[in-house]
Amino acid sequence: MPTMVSPSDPDIRLLQALADPVRLAIVRQLGGQPEVCACDFTSCCDVSQPTVSHHLKVLREAGVVEAERRGTWVFYRLRPEAASRLQRIASVIAAGATATVPLDPARSLPVLQPQA
Amino acid sequence: MPTMVSPSDPDIRLLQALADPVRLAIVRQLGGQPEVCACDFTSCCDVSQPTVSHHLKVLREAGVVEAERRGTWVFYRLRPEAASRLQRIASVIAAGATATVPLDPARSLPVLQPQA
DNA sequence: GGTCTATATTGACAAGCATCTATATAGTGG
DNA sequence: CCACTATATAGATGCTTGTCAATATAGACC
Question: Which of A81, B10, B15, B100 lies at a C-alpha separation of 20 to 30 Å from B107?
Answer without folding.
Answer: A81
